[in-house]
Amino acid sequence: MNTLGHSTKNYLLSGKEYDLFIAHASEDKDFVTPLASLLRKKGARVWYDDFILKIGDSLRREIDKGLVQSRYGVVVLSHYFFEKHWPQKELDALVAMEQLDKSVILPIWHNIDRDSVIKYSPTLADIKATKSSQGIDVVADEIMQRLTH
C-alpha cells in the first residue's frame, strides 16, 4: 500500500526522479534488498542497484545519475561499507551534495555501533541514524516519515 498519499505531489514537484538512493556494500544485501523492496511498496521511488542496473550499464554513470536525481541518500553503514571502494565514492558524493543543499544523508547503522562509526567517520557519527537491529519495518517507517515531513 502506498503510504505517501496526497503528499506524492510534493515529490513530483521536487524535480528529482527518485526519493532515495541506497548506498551499501554488496555484503549487506540480505538486509538492504528487503528494505528497498518495502520502501518501494510504501510508495518511495528508490534507486537501488539491483532495481536499476542492467547488463552493459556504466556503473559510474548510472550511480552518478542516481545520486543527482535522488532527494536523499540512505547510507547503510557497516564494517563492510567502510572497507569498500564504491560505497565510499557514493558517500563522498552525498557529502558534497549536503554542502550544496540541506541534509540529504539518512544513515542506517547495520551491525555496527557508534564507536565504530566514530572510528571511520566522526562527522557521520554526528548524524541521527536508525539501526537495522530495530527491524526492517521500523527502519522503513522512519525513512518514510522523513520523506513525508
Task: Give an overview of the whole structure.
With 149 residues, the chain is of the alpha/beta class. It has one domain (5-148): Toll/interleukin-1 receptor homology (TIR) domain (Rossmann fold, 3-Layer(aba) Sandwich), CATH 3.40.50. It is built from nine helices and five strands, in the order H-E-H-E-H-H-E-H-H-E-H-H-E-H. It has helices at residues 8-13, 29-41, 49-52, 59-68, 79-83, 85-100, 114-120, 122-125, 136-148, and strands spanning 18-23, 46-47, 70-77, 105-109, 130-131. It has a five-stranded parallel beta sheet with strand order 2-1-3-4-5, with helices on both faces. Helix 2 packs across helix 9 and helix 4 (59-68) runs parallel beside helix 6. The protein is globular, with a radius of gyration of 14 Å. Residues 16-147 form the TIR domain. It holds the Pfam family TIR_2. InterPro entries: TIR_dom, Toll_tir_struct_dom_sf. This is TIR domain-containing protein. It comes from marine sediment metagenome.
